[in-house]
């Protein structure tokens, strides 16, 4: 029966392979894979918009090499078709393989968990309930009932694990993310679960290698880095052994990282590697990338229409606020591991990873609709752990049951059988609730992706719908996913039994947030350089903080801000023509700044400076040149939502028009 359902899942996947899916992602895979196969990793990173980790580039290159064995990847008319079925087949075949590997890993990890050292001692003493020799008298019958629940565990456990593995394989969210959307979240999850499997088998070196590869395959896995190495540390008998094991794992991880990224080291392009590993921190600077989470609601159901640099909590932006919330949730995950007993270590590791994934999706801005995917592979592992723990508790309760003397057997037998029935019923309810929770989460996760796909590519959903038609549904999906997240957070806190410590962490985070807002509360001047613009347009390079605009070219060009050799420590280095807009959230009344043409500018540079509030011009300077001293201005911005700093060229061209806003400050 297991293989029948597995085959059914494969048939569904192969049937959906021709689906074009999220066309932009598939187009990126094609272009990046072609560049990787033809030119190599360094050319790919330096000459395209590649923004995935280095490890994934090797996968894309492999796909294109396989494609090239049968088709010509340089045949533009065929290769770049959205409906290039052969390319979709080659690529999605790897995704299907990853799904099958995850099924195998769920089963293997489940078996390791059930066969661990804390396996039930009575399991080797099980009696056959149908054996007539066991029914000699009432007392012996009671003893038989006592072992039946352990027998039930041994008989049911392997099938239960396979059911969970099938529920993953037939999960609509899993199928949709892979063979319909065309994403590769399965790669990261498969490698991470493999590293967890090696950890369970006490093979930390292999686990470290695989885990590092997983991080270089999907950036999202970096949220597991502290938890992974903390697990390696806690697994050991004492502090010294823990530090030694963790140090060894870190060295192996770095060596793996070095080998995969060797082209960057060999070509001495480490700055490009650093850029590649950090560029995604602000690649999509919005409240939510169609992830139906709290930020989707805060944005007014317009997550991709609102930049996360908007102020939402005093002088903290949405991005900063989300980061503090994530730190709080991640601290709970860390505490769950740090103070875990050894017998609960792996359970708490899985709980911590699920909580980190939930928090990554719900609390941080810039979250994609697909970022819940790792939970699809982690929850069945947690359910297996709970499955065993509940049986262990029941077995313990049975062992403590006071068996009476033979004179009292009839009454106590009735009580004991009722006790067994109640425990079995409670266990079934727990199973149903846990599996029901997983399936419910999967349904809303699937709907989140489905709506996002329909909004971007209406031809890829049935029936086609518009954003306006389903915007209200996105609100209910958001609320449902937030409720499920909250349930897990509360359950996790109760599980680790450290409510006081969690409360202390919450107070510390609240204190830090208050300190960040303290200058504003006290009415002290707030430097505009402490804010990030919600938008900017600039003809040359990007605005620079506390450095000249030319500093954007690299460390060799860094220079202090100065106007006619009047030097400033704080300010914004810009270039004509430019508009830099900040969100004030009606929190300030006065804006003051110095301004001028920077000392490094061309001698012919001539510009105007303008300050606007909500599109209304509050100030316009006269023409300023290279040898003019700094100007100064104070404007009233009370009630303004947005502040724009504008620079306009005054001559025929803007060559060398490097200009500065100096000591720009806001007053409450």
Description:
- By secondary structure, this protein is of the alpha+beta class.
- It has 3 domains: 1-115 and 162-283, no CATH class; 289-403 and 420-522, no CATH class; 526-667, Jelly Rolls (Sandwich), CATH 2.60.120.
- Helix content is 56%, strand content 12%.
- It has 21 helices and 18 strands.
- Strand 13 (606-613) and strand 14 form a beta hairpin.
- Helix 6 packs parallel to helix 9 and helix 7 runs parallel beside helix 19 (409-456).
- The protein is globular.
Q: State the low-pLDDT regions, or none.
A: 118-140, 142-147, 403-409
Number of domains: 3
Overall 3D shape:
globular
Q: Count of DSSP helices?
A: 21
Cα separation of the termini: 69 Å
Percentage of residues in strands? 5-15%
Annotation, overall tally of beta strands:
18
Largest sheet: 6 strands, antiparallel
Average predicted local confidence, pLDDT: 89
Helical residue percent? 55-70%
How large is the radius of gyration?
30 Å
Q: Supply the helix-strand structural class.
A: alpha+beta
């Amino acid at each position: 029966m297991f293989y029948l359902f597995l085959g059914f899942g494969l048939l569904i996947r192969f049937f959906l392979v021709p689906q074009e899916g999220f066309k932009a992602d598939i187009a990126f895979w094609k272009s990046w894979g072609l560049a990787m196969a033809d030119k190599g990793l360094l050319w790919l990173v330096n000459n395209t918009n590649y923004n995935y980790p280095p490890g994934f580039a090797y996968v894309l290159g492999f796909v294109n090499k396989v494609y090239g064995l049968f088709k010509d990847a340089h045949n533009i008319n065929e290769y770049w078709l959205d409906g290039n079925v052969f390319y979709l087949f080659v690529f999605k075949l790897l995704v299907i393989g990853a799904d099958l590997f995850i099924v195998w890993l769920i089963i293997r990890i489940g078996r390791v968990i059930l066969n661990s050292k804390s396996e039930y001692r009575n399991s080797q003493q099980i009696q056959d309930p149908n054996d007539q020799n066991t029914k000699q008298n009432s007392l012996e019958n009671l003893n038989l009932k006592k072992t039946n629940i352990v027998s039930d565990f041994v008989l049911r456990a392997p099938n239960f694990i396979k059911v969970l593995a099938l529920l993953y394989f037939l999960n609509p969210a899993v199928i949709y993310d892979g063979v319909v959307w065309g994403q590769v979240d399965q790669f990261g999850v498969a490698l991470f679960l493999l590293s967890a499997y090696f950890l369970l088998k006490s093979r930390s070196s292999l686990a470290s290698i695989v885990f590092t590869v997983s991080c270089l395959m999907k950036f999202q896995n970096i949220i597991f880095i502290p938890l992974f190495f903390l697990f390696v540390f806690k697994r050991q008998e004492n502090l010294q052994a823990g530090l030694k094991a963790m140090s060894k794992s870190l060295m192996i991880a770095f060596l793996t990282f070095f080998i995969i990224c060797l082209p960057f080291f060999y070509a001495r392009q480490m700055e490009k590697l650093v850029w590649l590993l950090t560029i995604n921190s602000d690649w999509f600077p919005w409240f939510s990338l169609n992830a139906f989470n709290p930020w989707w609601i805060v944005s007014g159901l317009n997550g991709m229409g609102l930049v996360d640099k908007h102020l939402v909590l005093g002088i903290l932006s949405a991005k900063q606020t989300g980061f503090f919330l994530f730190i709080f949730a991640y601290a709970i995950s860390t505490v769950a591991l740090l103070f875990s007993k050894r017998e609960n270590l792996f359970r708490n590791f899985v709980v911590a990873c699920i909580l980190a994934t939930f928090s990554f999706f719900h609390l941080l801005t810039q979250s994609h609709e697909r970022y819940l995917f790792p939970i699809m592979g982690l929850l069945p592992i947690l359910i297996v752990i709970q499955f065993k723990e509940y049986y262990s508790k029941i077995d313990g309760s049975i062992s403590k049951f006071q068996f009476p003397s033979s004179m009292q057997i009839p009454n106590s037998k009735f009580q004991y059988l009722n006790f067994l029935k109640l425990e079995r019923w409670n266990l079934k309810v727990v199973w149903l609730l846990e599996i029901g929770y997983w399936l419910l989460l999967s349904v809303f996760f699937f709907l989140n992706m489905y709506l996002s796909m329909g909004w971007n590519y209406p031809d890829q959903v049935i029936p086609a719908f518009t954003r306006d038609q389903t915007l209200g549904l996105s609100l209910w999906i958001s609320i449902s996913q937030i409720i499920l997240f909250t349930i897990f957070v509360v359950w996790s806190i109760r599980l680790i039994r450290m409510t006081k410590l969690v409360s202390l962490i919450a107070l510390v985070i609240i204190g830090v947030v208050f300190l960040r807002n303290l200058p504003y509360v006290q009415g002290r001047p707030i430097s505009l350089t402490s804010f990030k613009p919600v938008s900017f347009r600039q003809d040359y390079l990007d605005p620079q903080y506390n450095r000249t605009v030319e500093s954007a070219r690299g460390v060799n060009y860094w220079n202090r801000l100065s106007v006619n050799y009047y030097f400033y420590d704080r300010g914004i280095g810009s270039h004509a023509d430019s508009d830099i807009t900040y969100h004030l959230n009606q929190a300030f009344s006065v804006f003051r700044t110095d301004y001028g043409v920077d000392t490094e500018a061309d001698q012919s540079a001539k510009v105007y400076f303008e300050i606007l509030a909500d599109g209304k011009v509050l100030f316009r300077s006269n023409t300023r040149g290279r040898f003019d001293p700094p100007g100064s201005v104070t404007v009233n911005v009370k009630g303004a939502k947005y502040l724009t700093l504008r620079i306009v060229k005054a001559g025929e061209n803007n060559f060398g028009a490097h200009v500065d806003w100096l000591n720009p400050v806001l007053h409450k």
